[in-house]
């Protein structure tokens, strides 16, 4: 082989290696195991009206998510491809705890719920299948507070929490319990909007606006879930926030009536895709390009044939080849400005993230929580895990996440002690309320009752006698 041909083959080998490396830089987000989902369908209620669609809705949503790389968590906390059905109150608590553990460190944790739901006192509740219907107080005790027991356990678990609630379907007979409690029917319709904040990126979708009922539908799926499935089937290469927004946008034109809503809490735009936005597997693209370039070398001539990538503008290719080794993010930004839909746009965006300071793009996750201990006295002493740290006050103490024992002592008073669970990045306050020690309360002469109690009794007798006059 001639010197020119050997050099040309080395040139091809270098470009082939570069294209092979490109495979690892294409941002594909749908890896099985990086995303987990809990899909719940409550249909068979024991005391409320049964719902025909939630089970079928849950099965269909679980099937679509599984095909997109989500691992479905079952009632025992195992990962698979199936939803869970007909959860009682106890089942709800168990499955959420197990799902929260599975969500730790994942890219996306998604919860989908279809079934009965309502609001009481401006708070949202999901209704387990063992919910009664006669008294509102009994319903409230059995219902699952959405914010406290569904969303809060998922804080600081996955990068992104997605919650989709196709709930608030009409509950015949509930009006009687509502009227008996002195409330109007509108006070329990629909789900109230989330009031709390979260340090986790959250996307929360509702099948109906606050105070609206969601239709169960007469077909195989509820109207909202039907549109959700339609989007998953026809446009899987969109971001999660685009999916939710598109369903909410399409619903009024298709069905009217209820108006779906969603809440976006700090979700990074155009980042979390349902499926890779690259239509062809990157390895296959690199293989095709490599084969094409190798075939462009003539075996019968000593002159090298110019190497190009099929379908790529030669000027763009030359620009990229001159920029690809740079450590200056402005070079890649200039490429994106000139070729916003260029063949190497995805790699340029990744390069920008790589060469910019890590601290600016990816601030370190909090490793400690903050604990404030207050009390109703002064001159006390706080002990955390057996170690004295000083008196109570407004100052926060930085502690590692997990369980801690908090004890507050003051001479002459009963000590206060409690055990807390602190989360990283969270601030928690413990308020110690002291009581006098029994031995320090003065007794009367007979030793049977404290003198203070006798004084209160005497004062009560005086008031009673004045009223009788």
Which descriptors apply to this entry?
Rossmann fold; 18 strands; 14 helices; 469 residues; four-stranded antiparallel beta sheet; 3 domains; alpha/beta; Immunoglobulin-like
Description:
It is a single chain. With 469 residues, this protein is α/β, with parallel strands linked by helices. It has three domains: 35-265, 3-Layer(aba) Sandwich (Rossmann fold), CATH 3.40.50.1460; 311-362, no CATH class; 369-435, Carboxypeptidase-like, regulatory domain (Immunoglobulin-like). It is 35% helix and 19% strand. It has helices at residues 3-22, 54-67, 89-103, 136-142, 146-151, 174-180, 223-234, 240-254, 282-295, 314-323, 329-338, 345-355, 358-361, 451-468; strands at residues 35-41, 71-73, 79-80, 84-85, 108-114, 117-120, 123-126, 144-145, 160-166, 201-206, 261-265, 369-375, 381-384, 387-390, 396-399, 402-409, 416-422, 427-432. The strands form four sheets. Strands 1, 2, 3, 4, 5, 9, 10 and 11 form an eight-stranded mixed beta sheet that branches. A four-stranded antiparallel beta sheet has the order 14-13-16-17, with no helix packed on it. A three-stranded antiparallel beta sheet has the order 6-7-8. Strand 16 (402-409) and strand 17 form a beta hairpin. Helix 1 (3-22) packs antiparallel against helix 9, helix 2 (54-67) runs parallel beside helix 7 (223-234) and helix 11 (329-338) runs antiparallel to helix 12 (345-355). The model is unreliable at 1-32 and 279-308 (pLDDT under 50).
């Amino acid at each position: 082989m001639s010197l020119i041909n050997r050099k040309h083959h080395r040139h091809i080998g270098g470009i082939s290696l570069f294209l092979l490396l490109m495979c690892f830089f294409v941002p594909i987000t749908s890896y099985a195991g990086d995303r987990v989902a809990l899909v719940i369908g409550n249909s068979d209620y024991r005391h409320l009206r049964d719902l025909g669609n939630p089970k079928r809705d849950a099965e269909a949503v679980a099937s679509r998510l599984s095909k997109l790389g989500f691992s479905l968590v079952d009632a025992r906390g195992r990962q698979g491809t199936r939803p869970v059905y007909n959860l009682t109150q106890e089942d709800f608590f168990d499955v959420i705890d197990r799902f929260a553990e599975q969500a730790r460190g994942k890219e996306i944790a998604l919860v989908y719920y279809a079934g009965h739901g309502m609001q009481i006192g401006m708070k949202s509740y999901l209704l387990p299948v063992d919910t009664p219907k006669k008294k509102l107080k009994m319903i409230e005790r059995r219902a699952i507070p959405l914010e406290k027991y569904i969303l809060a356990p998922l804080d600081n678990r996955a990068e992104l929490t997605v919650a989709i609630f196709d709930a608030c379907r009409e509950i015949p007979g509930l009006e009687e319990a509502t009227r008996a409690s002195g409330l109007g029917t509108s006070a329990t319709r629909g789900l109230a909007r989330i009031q709390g904040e979260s340090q986790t990126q959250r996307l929360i979708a509702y099948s109906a606006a606050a105070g609206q009922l969601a239709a169960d539908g007469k077909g195989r799926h509820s109207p909202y879930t039907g549109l959700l499935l339609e989007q998953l089937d026809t446009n899987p290469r969109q971001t999660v926030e685009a999916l939710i927004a598109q369903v909410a946008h399409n619903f009024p034109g298709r069905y009217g009536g209820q108006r779906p809503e969603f809440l976006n809490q700090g979700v990074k735009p155009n980042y979390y895709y349902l499926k890779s936005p690259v239509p062809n597997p990157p390895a296959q693209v690199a293989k095709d390009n490599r084969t094409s370039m190798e075939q462009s070398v003539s075996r019968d001539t000593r002159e090298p044939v110019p190497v190009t990538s099929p379908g790529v503008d030669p000027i763009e290719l030359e620009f990229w080849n001159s920029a690809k080794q740079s450590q200056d993010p402005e070079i890649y930004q200039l490429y994106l400005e000139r070729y916003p839909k260029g063949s190497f746009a995805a790699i340029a965006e990744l390069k920008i993230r790589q060469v910019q300071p890590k601290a600016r793009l990816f601030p370190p996750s909090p490793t400690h929580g903050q604990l404030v201990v207050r009390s109703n006295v002064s001159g006390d002493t706080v002990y955390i895990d057996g170690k004295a740290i000083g008196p109570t006050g407004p100052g926060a103490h930085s502690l590692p996440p997990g369980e801690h024992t908090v004890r507050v002592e003051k001479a002459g008073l009963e000590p206060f002690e409690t055990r807390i669970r602190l989360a990283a990045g969270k601030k928690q306050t413990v308020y110690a309320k002291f009581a006098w020690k029994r031995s320090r309360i003065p007794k009367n002469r007979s030793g049977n009752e404290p003198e203070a109690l006798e004084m209160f009794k005497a004062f009560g007798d005086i008031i009673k006698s004045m009223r009788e006059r």
